[in-house]
Amino acid sequence: MKDYIFPDIPRQYKKIAKASKKLEFNMASDLYTGSLLKTLVASKPSGRILELGTGSGLSTSWILSGMSKTAKLTTVDNNDVLLDIAKVALADSRIKFVLADGYEWIKNYKGEKFDLIFADAIPGKYDLFGETLALLKVGGFYIIDDMKPQSNWPAGHSARVKKLIALVRGKR
Ligand SMILES: C[S@@+](CC[C@H](N)C(=O)[O-])C[C@H]1O[C@@H](n2cnc3c(N)ncnc32)[C@H](O)[C@@H]1O
What we know:
The chain is 38% helix and 17% strand. By secondary structure, the protein is an alpha/beta fold. The model has no long low-confidence stretch (mean pLDDT 96). It has helices spanning 13-22, 31-42, 58-66, 80-89, 102-108, 129-133, 157-168, and strands at 48-52, 72-77, 95-99, 114-119, 136-143. It has 7 helices and 5 strands. The N and C termini lie far apart (37 Å). A 5-stranded parallel β-sheet has the order 3-2-1-4-5, with helices on one face. The structure holds S-adenosylmethionine.
């Protein structure tokens, strides 16, 4: 299997990547994560999807490409400049773009639970993990990436990652 070939990169991806580069935004998920997101989202027809950490919309474009006509996505970020790039490039009535602090949003959300959560910001991943899992339907997917050591990790991050992996595995 040649898993390094991506024949289905979303059509909006290049434009968003160009705008992201201009802003020197380099925290986007890689193509493997994007492709996995698309596949898992496609396995949830009419799914309710949550993305925490829209960034400029690169991962969002993958999520969108896997969504059925009746699926819905809520995507949250606290950076209006990045969110605007995503809003313009991915305008679609199935997506709700939310400019908000993730901590507040998670704590205050009272709507329907989600079939898939892609947690790609500190809130929802390293913080408020339990509260975020509580927003997932039974049988839903909770997705996180960047769990393997990286040269740019700040001091102390490695310990946080270890703790989160233990939590996900059900150890404390
Ligand atoms: C890893 S990036 C997301 C990248 C994006 N998912 C992608 O793959 O293109 C993390 C994002 O979390 C956002 N963020 C950081 N702190 C936040 C907070 N407290 N509330 C909401 N968003 C936050 C940042 O603005 C940034 O866009």
